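Section 5.1 Outputs to date
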Amino acid sequence: MAALGIGAFIFALILVIVIHEAAHFAVARAFGIKVTEFFVGFGPRLWSRMRGETEVGLKAIPAGGYVKIAGMNPYETISPEDYPRTFGAKPIWQRSLVILAGPATHFVLAFMCFALWLGLVGQPVERGVVISEVMPTLHGVDSPAAAARLRPDDIVVAVGDVTDPSTDELRAYTTAHAGEPVTFTIRRDGETFRAVMVPALSQVGGEVIGRIGVGVQPRSIVRQTEGVVGSVTGGVDLIGEHLVGTVQGVGRIFGPEGIGRLATLVFTDEPRRAEDPASVVGIGRVAGSLASDDRFGDLLLLFGIVNVFVGLLNLLPLPPFDGGHLAVLAIEKIRGRPVDMRKVIPVSAAVAAFFIVFTVAVVYVDLVKPPNV
C-alpha cells in the first residue's frame, strides 16, 4: 500500500509539471510566440518527437520540466523572419500572461484537490468529548470537576446549549463563560446527569482558556462531507488558509533561522521537528503512510497543499522562478525600456545554486532523519 501511495504521489508530481509547462506553451502559442521545445525532465533525451515546430519529449532526470520559448535566452540566435514571433517582441501584458499561466495552474489544481476532498472524502470532525483525567486541584483549591465528582471516562453530552461538543467547542464555551455557573450534561455508565460548575481562567501553552480541571479527548472522529456549494467555498477557504501558512513557512524556512536550523540538522545529531522542511522524499513518505493507513482520499489534501506551496514558490520575485521573470517585466515597464537579460543570468545562476544546495540538504535530512508520519 505504501508503494502505491508513493507511486501515486510521483505520478501526480509529473502530471503537475506537465500541466504547468503546458500552460506556458498554450498561452505562448495563443499569442503567436514560437515554442521550440517542450520537455519533461532534464539531462539526456530519452524520447522526443516533433509536433509541428516544437520538439516534445522526455529526459532522463524527472526533476522538473521546461518549455523553450523563442527569444527568452539572450544568447539564442534568432532568424530575422522569426523575430516578430519571439517573446521579447510581444507586449508586456502578453508576456506576463505567458509567465503567469504556469503558476496559476497550481492554484487551480489545489482548488480542485481541496474541493474534491471536501465533497468526496470529507474533513475529520470531532463528535463528543470524553474526560480522560480529573485534576484534584486548580489554582490551589479543589477543581470544579473534582468538586462535582466527575471521573475519567465520563462523556460530556452537552455544555450549556451546545450539544455533543467538540474539544474546541468545549474550550471556547468554558472560556466565554469563565466565572459563571455552567451546566454540563454528563453520561456515565449509560445514565445521564447534570453538574453545574464555574470555569476558571488558566494559562495553558501561552493561551488563556476557561478550565474546570479536566483533561479531555475526542470520543470519536467522523468524516463530514460537503455539498457542491460547500466544497467550492471550502476549497477557496483552504487555498487562503494554506497560502497564509505557506507564506509564513517560506519566510521561516529560507530565512537566517531556517538556514541555521537546516545546517544543524545536517551536521549534528539534533532530532527532527514536525515543522522542519521536507523534500519530495519526505512528502513521498507521507503519501505512502496515508496509503498504508487506507487514507487514499487524504492524498487529495496532500496534493492540494503541495500545489499551493509550489505555486507560491514559483511566484518568488527571483530569477529563474516565474516570479523573477514577472519582476523583470515590471522593471521593464517602469523603466520604459527592455532589461538586458544577460545581466540577469548571474543572478539566476546564484539563486539556482542556492536552491539546489538547499534541496540536496533537505533530501539528505529526509533520508537520515525521516519525518514522523
